[in-house]
Specification:
- With 208 residues, the protein is α/β, with parallel strands linked by helices.
- It has a single domain, classed as Rossmann fold, CATH 3.40.50.150.
- 35% of the residues lie in helices and 21% in strands.
- It has eight helices and seven strands.
- The radius of gyration is 16 Å and the shape is globular.
- The N and C termini lie far apart (36 Å).
């Protein structure tokens, strides 16, 4: 991971804005209150956390990522913008805990994945672990690639080939997995397709 991002981190945000569509839609739709503790799983360079930290100065934002190289950018962003309500650490999505990793007494008030599920090999464990670290009645948000069935075949093929270069892939079992969790009484699910079927935002509210 660090080997891949050692150089990419310098132009990551500039290049990703053209195809990681829906990130700002998620940020604007998230339910956030003063005093909340909110986590981004796979925060990368801290781009999303900076936007949120500036918008909600009285809310605490946390981020984790497996790449120390990407976190170098996130830390630099935090320091240069004096974002005192932003905190990032190196950790794995399937192993972190609100207490041991972040020193918090209570679980998070919201957790979100922004185009990181498609990069996490054991994404099922990452989702389950996040639900364990989320307060009852609170939302888990995911924005990521959809099936793109409404897009031309040539476009889908080209995008898949491009994403493969960065170890990124669409997870066709993700939404069925969330629907099964809803069926099992773990929470309620709302899915919003974006840009036809290019991407989607999912909001899974953990059962109180």
């Amino acid at each position: 991971m660090d080997r891949m991002y050692r150089f990419q981190r310098h132009f990551y945000d500039l290049s990703r804005k053209y195809y990681l569509l829906g990130r700002d839609r998620l940020i604007s739709d998230m339910r956030i209150s003063e005093g909340d503790h909110i986590l981004e799983v796979g925060c990368g360079t801290g781009r999303n956390l900076e936007i949120l930290s500036r918008k909600y100065p009285d809310t605490r934002f946390y981020g984790l990522d497996a790449s120390s190289e990407m976190l170098r950018n996130a830390e630099r962003r935090k320091e240069s913008k004096a974002l005192r309500n932003m905190h990032v650490v190196r950790a794995l999505a399937e192993e972190y805990s609100h207490s041991d990793t972040f020193g918090l007494e209570d679980p998070f008030d919201a957790i979100f994945f922004s185009y990181s599920i498609s990069m996490i090999p054991d994404w099922e464990s990452a989702v389950e672990n996040s639900l364990r670290n989320l307060r009852n009645g609170c939302p888990l948000y995911i924005v990521d690639f959809f099936d793109q069935r409404s897009m031309p075949a040539w476009f889908r093929k080209a995008l898949v080939a491009w994403l493969k270069k960065f170890h990124v892939q669409y997870r066709p079992d993700l939404l069925p997995h969330l629907k099964q969790l809803e069926k099992n009484g773990k929470g309620s699910l709302k899915v919003t397709p974006l840009y036809k079927t290019y991407s989607f935002v999912a909001e899974f509210t953990k059962t109180p």
